[in-house]
Amino acid sequence: MKRLKLSILAVTLALVPALALAADSWDTVKGYTVEKKNEALAYGKKLVRQTDREIKELDRKAAKASGEAKAQFQSDMRELKVKRKQASQKLDEMGKATGAAWDEAKNGFADAYKDLRDSTDRAVKKLK
User: Fold this and answer.
1) Are 79 and 71 contacting, i.e. CB atoms less than 8 angstroms apart?
2) Nearest alpha-carbon partner for 87 in 124, 123, 126, 119
3) For a surface tag, which of 22, 28, 38, 111 has the fewest beta carbons within 10 Å of its beta carbon?
4) For residues 55 and 80, is the Cβ–Cβ distance under 8 A?
């Protein structure tokens, strides 16, 4: 049990810089114009990959938990994976958007990413 707590602490500390970076990420995405679409897509992909790494680490730690805690972590992991899929779909839509649909598409991704980020943050806090 002590090893599990130390592992959880290590994961939590490792994720702190990522959490700080993500705080304004959705606002950054919303600031891109259609002329900077490629940059916006690259940034969005970077955000999703970063979150993928966090989800993978959380999933690994959740698998080591037991009892009620394991059930809760598994539920959180299912939620995160659904939200990650939604963010990815919105990122794909943003990539296909043209000038007229750009603002709606980028805001859709930014909002989906913020939702994913908030869920990830809540899952990390539960591990503390």
Assistant:
1) no
2) 119
3) 38
4) yes
Query: Under CATH, what is the fold of the domain 2-127?
Result: Four Helix Bundle (Hemerythrin (Met), subunit A) (1.20.120)
In the numeric block, the tokens 């602490």 are attached to 9
Q: Provide the residue ranges of all domains of the chain, joining segments of one domain with +.
A: 2-127
pLDDT for 45-92, tens place per residue?
Answer: 999 999 999 999 888 887 888 888 888 888 888 999 999 999 999 999
**Helices vs. strands in the chain: H and E counts, helices first:** 5, 0
Using a cut of 0.70, tell me whether the model's pTM lies above it. yes
Q: How far apart are CA 121 and CA 12, in angstroms?
A: 10
User: Is the CB of residue 12 less than 8 Å from the CB of residue 128?
Assistant: yes
- Cα-Cα-Cα-Cα dihedral of 63, 45, 113, 79, to 10°? -20
